[in-house]
Amino acid sequence: MPELRVGVIGTGMMGCEHLRNLMGISDASITAISDPHAEQQGWARHTLGSQASMVAEFTDHRDLLNSGLVDAVLVATPNFTHKALLDDIFETDLHVLVEKPMCTTVEDCLSIVRAQSKRTALTWVGLEYRYMAPIAGLLNELRSGIVGNLKMMSIREHRFPFLVKVDNWNRFSQNTGGTLVEKCCHFFDLMNLAVRSRPVRVFASGSQDLNHLDEIYDGRPSDILDNAFVIVDYANGVRTMLDLSMFAEGGLHEQEITVVGDLGKLEAFIPGNGKIFIGDRMSRSVREVAVPVDPDISHLGFHLGASFIECKHFVDAVLNDKQPEVTVLDGLWSVVVGAAAHKSIDEQRPVFISEYGI
Ligand SMILES: NC(=O)c1ccc[n+]([C@@H]2O[C@H](COP(=O)([O-])OP(=O)(O)OC[C@H]3O[C@@H](n4cnc5c(N)ncnc54)[C@H](O)[C@@H]3O)[C@@H](O)[C@H]2O)c1
Fold first, then answer.
1. Which one of 8, 64, 73, 77 would you pick to mutate in the ligand 1 pocket, going by the greatest count of ligand atoms within 8 A of its CB?
2. Would you give the end-to-end CA distance of the chain in angstroms?
3. Looking at the domain 4-129+309-327, which fold is it?
4. What is the pLDDT along the chain (358 residues), one digit of tens a residue?
5. CATH 3.40.50.720 location in the chain
6. CATH 3.30.360.10: does it fit domain 130-298+333-356?
7. Best CA proximity match to 356, nearest among 178, 201, 186
């Protein structure tokens, strides 16, 4: 089987995780990287180790795209750059895996969905939480019907504050799309995936209460929301809720995911200990089920090996002419819920998704 030649655009924290992922995938070879910052170019070289001398380095992504050295690219640049980068990539026939969020606004996501419908090369969005073993296990059990018809889903993320990023781009909502787009598109994607229906109404409350309050950049204070509750109603009657706190370093689990059907309840915890919990209403009992972990995972990275699985499936899809598992529509709908939640907070009212004209 021919190897897929991959270029990585943006070699900060996530780009380097993807370099490590690709180094563990035998069907892929890293042929080029691009980053305008010398320090992050150094991170890439360090990550690539002895392979670095065989990888072309660019400071401008357009030179990488036109180099003839790549069949596919992986985009791991700041959120606010994704739209322009995708526009440039869509001028080529290169396949692309773009990190989440696909874009920072609903309007830009819609533009990408329209553009993708006119191209044949594959576009995959980096919403990899669905591949984390406990979450994949929970979704499998839900699909099996073991808890009956899904009625409610809740996701609690209680974690540490946002890390420092290159040029502190993640301190401003304009750059990220806002916390509920930037971070929580992962959770809205899981909700959309589990519920299998379209969100119709979003009601949220949230604010920036503790984090980054004393951080000022070029005279501008950071404006990143650090806690929220978000309620989402779906067209099929299912309701979901997100409980986000980014000043909860002391918790047992970073994420807790619960789905409740008319027959029972499923619970998964991240990082968890390789198990999920299945509750049965009739017998009022709960049992533990071990969830399988992909034995191919070469390194866990910051996401329990989920971004490795994502890269492996992306490479397989390109080489074997398969459809993407995470599409631009998934990218769009995960951003729609986050954007509507921010609008709900800003305007202190429930927001109907129909307001976006979709
Ligand atoms: N899927 C996940 O779980 C996950 C986790 C973390 C970050 N991310 C996403 O990955 C992306 C990168 O985040 P990060 O944490 O690595 O940020 P980072 O700041 O560590 O790295 C971003 C890098 O992109 C580079 N860059 C900026 N513009 C560029 C351009 N035009 N061409 C090439 N490089 C460019 C910067 O110099 C920097 O090195 C973001 O979209 C973020 O939301 C996803």
1. 77
2. 42
3. Rossmann fold (3.40.50)
4. 569 999 999 999 999 999 999 999 999 999 999 999 999 999 999 999 999 999 999 999 999 999 999 999 999 999 999 999 999 999 999 999 999 999 999 999 999 999 999 999 999 999 999 999 999 999 999 999 999 999 999 999 999 999 989 889 999 999 999 999 999 999 999 999 999 999 999 999 999 999 999 999 999 999 999 999 999 999 999 999 999 999 999 989 999 999 999 999 999 999 988 899 999 999 999 999 999 998 889 889 989 999 999 999 999 999 999 999 999 999 999 999 999 999 999 999 999 999 999 9
5. 4-129+309-327
6. yes
7. 201
Sign of CA dihedral 298, 156, 113, 150: positive
Ligand 1 center to 331 CA (angstroms): 17
Domain with CATH 3.30.360.10 in the chain: 130-298+333-356
Q: How far apart are the CA of 242 and the centre of ligand 1, in A?
A: 25
Give residues (CB < 6 A) around ligand 1. Answer: 9-15, 34-37, 40, 61, 76-79, 81, 99-100, 126, 128, 165-166, 182, 303
Alpha-carbon separation of residue 206 from 11, 203, 209, 322 (angstroms): 32, 10, 9, 40
- Looking at residue 187, its amino acid is F
Q: Is the peptide bond before 271 cis (omega within 30 degrees of 0)?
A: yes
